[in-house]
Design brief:
The structure holds 2 protein chains of 2 kinds. Chain A has 10 helices and 8 strands. Chain A starts with a helix and ends with a helix. Chain A is of the alpha/beta class. Chain A is globular. In chain A, 53% of the residues are buried. The longest helix of chain A is centred in the C-terminal third of the chain and has 23 residues. By secondary structure, chain B is α+β, with helices and mostly antiparallel strands. Chain B is 23% helix and 33% strand. In chain B, strands 1-2-3-4-5 form a 5-stranded antiparallel beta sheet. Chain B has a 5-stranded antiparallel beta sheet with strand order 6-7-8-9-10. The longest helix of chain B has 18 residues. The chains are: A alpha/beta, B alpha+beta. The interface between A and B is large, with 78 and 64 residues. Chain A: Its cofactor is Zn(2+).
Chain lengths: 319, 278
């Protein structure tokens, strides 16, 4: 929270904190809204980090991303253009209760779910938030044993953290171009849908843009990332945030599974944080640039061309 | 006048050379092909297993490759050689009558410590039937000349003479993945011993990694080899479970790692609950 407040202090005309929900342990769920005020209606990009508590590299990446766009927009014309047309909604830690729990001591470091209390007939805490969204909820890739890592909750959207996201996004869903969820580990870009029997209507586009992003990632430190649907490259998933977002009509939704590929797993060493963030940033940038340009640049370029053409004819016909 | 017209036309043509970009209308309606209320096809999670040529990026080939990694580490690993799968190039799977499934893989594997890569052909057989039966693996690894042999024997020498150094060590030593350089060989040993278990426990529906070496202690022994007691946490990706195993294992540069005793520790749900507040 204090880091978020610092970001607002350092960039008051560009950053605001928005509290959009509360966790089970009554903590505020907040995001940073980042963009230039133009007075015009803007499009939006969503990024959430830390849905799964033990994936510490994810919140680190959200911080890196925020810092990076705030540093580059003043000198990079492209980023400035994007900040004018788009607002970035970044939630550095979505599952705050779980995250704080992993800092408690050595035995809690590998906690994954949120900290909702045990249901009546079962004796374990926590719901897997990334199985709790209303997207083919509770069908595949879950277990109704509340002790399971994949427990999807007592019903779809049962969790406070889930509803905070859906309430916020749903109220603005037509403005979202992109919905990105950051996780670890595995070095993958996962596209909808997590259910093996459903294919996203823009599957080809999602794969193509995903490939572009993994190429951009590879160029930084030669790290290999794989693109595909969860049933293809990992395992089936239902009730994920990105599937829900895709069903709301948000065209480009991706789960980023950051480093590593097995040596350190969730406890990524300090010296790998920077390079992981650098490469992931290039991947994210590829996707958001594509999303932005698809909506904005085409029209602008066309209009400019036609106008300059007409102008030239006028100029010449009067001489 | 004509010249001016020509120039104008030329300019216009040059300018209109910019490709026409179609703007797709914003997607307003929700995607109905995967409506939350539609009934999915019923079927067990395992479904029809992929057969024939495998997509190297998809999970069947990736999981099988991980099994090869565990096998190679049990055979060729040492405190100074840890093997990892780098890329799966191609794969093939087929049913073998009613007895199980056979895989063939072409991969690139990597010595994580020296960062040297080599190609590897592997054959795996996952037996069918009641209870957990370990897969059978055939794969070769070329042990290139590295410092590894010398470092291993120096390390063994050091441990034989100075037993008091290692007791109840946790690796990584903190939640941030930190491992002191002189502790790395012990961490590798913990991973190698765990590789026996991971190999034994692997099926087509698992993907094992070592999450943490919770505790490793060197024990006194009269034998030529060195003896260790170890508690590791394995991460099984497909279930996302953390599974605790206790092991007793031996190591010598000549014999490699041998697991003498292993025991899976029960899932302690109580650890996942908050203490009751007073």
């Amino acid at each position: 929270t204090s880091w978020m407040e610092q970001m607002v202090k350092d960039h008051p005309d560009v950053v605001t904190v928005v509290k959009y929900g509360k966790t089970y342990e009554s903590r505020d769920i907040s995001l940073l809204k980042i963009g230039l005020n133009t007075g015009k209606e803007k499009k939006a990009i969503w990024m959430d980090c830390g849905i799964h508590a033990r994936e510490w590299i994810a919140p680190a990446f959200c911080q890196y991303f925020v810092r990076e766009i705030l540093q580059t927009y003043k000198t990079d014309a492209k980023m400035e253009q994007m900040m004018k047309n788009v607002d970035f909604y970044v939630t550095p830690v979505l599952n705050i209760d779980g995250y704080i729990y992993t800092w408690e001591n050595e035995t809690t470091r590998l906690w994954r779910k949120n900290r909702s209390p045990e249901p009546e007939d079962c004796s374990c805490y926590g719901t897997d938030l990334n199985r709790n969204f209303d997207a083919n909820w509770g069908t595949i890739g879950v277990s109704f044993n509340c002790c399971s890592k994949f427990y999807p909750g007592s019903k779809a959207m049962s969790e406070l953290e889930t509803r905070a996201v859906t309430d916020f996004v749903r109220s603005r869903k037509d403005s979202f171009l992109c919905f990105l969820s950051i996780h670890s580990y595995g070095q993958m870009l996962l596209i909808p849908y997590g259910h093996p029997n459903y294919t996203a209507p823009n599957y080809d586009e999602l794969m193509m843009v995903g490939q572009g992003a993994t190429e951009a990632i590879w160029k930084v430190h030669r790290t290999n990332y794989t693109v595909g649907t969860p049933p293809d490259v990992l395992y089936p998933i239902t009730g994920s945030a990105t599937d829900w977002a895709r069903m709301q009509g948000i065209p480009l939704t991706y789960i980023f599974e950051l480093r590593d590929n097995g040596t350190y797993r969730f406890e990524l060493p300090e010296d790998q944080i920077q390079p992981t963030c650098e490469e992931a940033y290039r991947g994210v940038l590829y996707i958001i640039t594509y999303a932005h340009d698809k909506t904005f640049n085409g029209a602008v370029a066309n209009t400019a061309v036609t106008l300059s053409g007409i102008l030239l004819i006028f100029v010449f016909s009067f001489t | 006048e004509i010249m001016r017209l020509v120039v104008v036309l030329a300019v216009l043509m040059g300018v209109s050379g910019i490709p026409d970009v179609t703007i797709s209308p914003p997607t307003a309606s929700a995607d109905t092909s995967a409506h939350p209320n539609s009934i999915p096809e019923t079927g067990a999670e395992e479904d029809v297993m992929a057969t024939g040529e495998l997509n190297p990026n998809h999970y069947p080939a990736r999981r099988a490759a991980q099994v090869v990694q565990h096998y190679l580490n049990t055979r060729y690993g040492s405190p100074f050689r840890l093997i990892g799968v780098q890329t799966v190039h191609s794969g093939n799977a087929e049913d073998v009558a009613d007895s199980g499934r056979k895989y063939q893989l072409e991969l690139s594997v990597n010595d994580i410590i020296t960062n040297t890569t080599q190609t590897c052909s592997a054959e795996l057989f996952f037996p069918k039937g009641k209870g957990q039966q370990p897969p059978e693996v055939k794969a070769l690894y070329q042990k290139y000349k590295t410092n590894q042999t010398l470092m291993s024997s120096d390390f063994a020498q050091q441990l034989r003479s100075d037993i008091s150094t290692l007791s109840n060590s946790k690796l990584p030593s903190d939640s941030h993945g930190h491992i002191e350089p002189d502790m790395k060989p012990f961490w590798h040993l913990g991973i190698l011993a765990s590789s026996f278990i991971m190999l034994n426990e692997s099926t087509e529906n698992t993907l094992y990694n070592v999450a943490q070496v919770a505790n490793i202690t060197q024990l006194t022994t009269e034998e030529d080899h060195l003896e260790f007691d170890c508690h590791t946490l394995l991460h099984e990706m497909v279930s996302q479970e953390i599974i605790h195993w206790k092991m007793l294992f031996t190591w010598s540069p000549a014999e490699g790692v041998k697991v003498v005793q292993m025991k899976r520790l029960p899932h302690r749900h109580e650890r996942e609950k908050s203490p009751k507040t007073n």
